[in-house]
Amino acid sequence: SAVISQKPSRDICQRGTSLTIQCQVDSQVTMMFWYRQQPGQSLTLIATANQGSEATYESGFVIDKFPISRPNLTFSTLTVSNMSPEDSSIYLCSVEGGTSGNTIYFGEGSWLTVV
Amino acid sequence: AQSVTQPDIHITVSEGASLELRCNYSYGATPYLFWYVQSPGQGLQLLLKYFSGDTLVQGIKGFEAEFKRSQSSFNLRKPSVHWSDAAEYFCAVARTDSWGKLQFGAGTQVVVTP
Fold first, then answer.
1. Interface touch B43/A108, C-beta < 8 Å
2. Burial annotation B45-64 (CB, 10 A radius, 16+ → b, else e)
3. Distance of CA B1 to the CA centre of its chain
4. Which of A6, A95, B21, B72 could link A107 by a cystine bridge, Cβ 3.0 to 4.6 Å?
């Protein structure tokens, strides 16, 4: 199985600031995925991060608001820019893994509250 | 486009009773299906998955799920729930453009009473 570590686990942020979330995986993976879970809601895919190329964003999410880096095969960052209270969410990183590469693992999530 | 429906937003079950959570999907081909659990303040934990083969899938924590193509369903079951099963449960289907991208249902909140 893949072990995913996210930092920070929780944070309280001021409106208008930016925060970068880190995702570290214990093995090399081709694709990493970032999801958002707004309070009381389900998970929504933000973007896919491939090493060596720009991230691909889902409808409704833009690079200016959620810039992503993928410097190597075990690490990615998601920045939430110019935060507003509506950005208060859990942000989760996920990867494909498993012995057959057919399992999707999630990190513990980064719980952001914007005040 | 794929979609996942979890008809029950909230279920209350007594400890020791059986539990069944419903999941219906909309998908053109054979879907890759997952059930995840999210305990309060925790991330997502994979309970089980279905890719192909035996339609009755065994997972962790005593859970199982049955894939029924004719009903487009992938319901999760547990014969006897424990208080620690109180959590949010999410059904998900892999998207056609990349199986690593998941489309999630709205989730079912399970409350376990003594």
1. yes
2. bbbbbbbeeeeebebeeebb
3. 20
4. A6
- Cβ contact (<8 Å) for B46 and A103? yes
pLDDT for residue A100? 63
- Joined tokens for residue A5: 């570590």
Identify which has the larger pLDDT, A93 or A100: A93
Distance CA A96, CA B85 (A): 26
The model's pLDDT over A27-63, given as tens digits with 9 standing for 90+, comes to 998 889 999 999 989 999 999 998 888 899 999 999 9
The Cα A80–Cα B54 span in angstroms is 42
| C-alpha–C-alpha distance, residues B16 and B57, integer Å | 21
Q: What is chain A's percent helix, strand, coil content, to nearest 5?
A: 5, 55, 45
Instruction: Flag whether residue B44 sits within 8 Å of chain A, measured between CB atoms.
Output: yes
